[in-house]
Specification:
100 residues; mainly alpha; 434 Repressor (Amino-terminal Domain)
C-alpha cells in the first residue's frame, strides 16, 4: 500500500502542467490542439489554468499528444501474491534461532 501526499486538485493541476509541456514540445498551440482534438479552445485554456476538464476531453487531448495508452494502466489490479505479502511476512513461523 502506498501513501499519497497529493490532493486530487493538486494532481489535476500537475496533469494540466504536463499536458501543456508536452503540447509545447510538439510545437502545438492551444488552438492547434483544439482543432486536432475536437476539444474547444476555451476548454483547453481552462484546463491548463485550473486542471478542470471532462474525462472524455482529456482522453481526446491525450490521443493527439500520443499519451492515450498511458491511461490503460490507470486502475490495474494488484496481483494477490503482492497484496498479501505483508500478511505473509507477519505470519512467518520459521524459527530464527536454534535451541541451546
Amino acid at each position: 500500500m502506498s501513501v499519497i501526499l497529493i490532493t486530487p486538485p493538486e494532481m489535476a493541476k500537475q496533469v494540466a502542467k504536463q499536458e501543456r509541456t508536452k503540447r509545447l514540445s510538439l510545437n502545438l498551440s492551444q488552438k492547434g490542439l483544439s482543432e486536432r482534438s475536437g476539444v474547444s479552445y476555451a476548454v483547453i485554456k481552462k484546463f491548463e489554468q485550473t486542471g478542470k476538464i471532462s474525462l472524455e476531453s482529456l482522453l481526446k487531448i491525450a490521443l493527439v499528444l500520443n499519451s492515450l495508452n498511458e491511461f490503460e494502466c490507470l486502475f490495474n489490479i494488484i496481483p494477490a501474491e503482492t497484496a498479501n505479502s505483508l500478511d505473509e511476512l507477519l505470519s512467518d513461523t520459521n524459527r530464527k534461532r536454534g535451541r541451546k
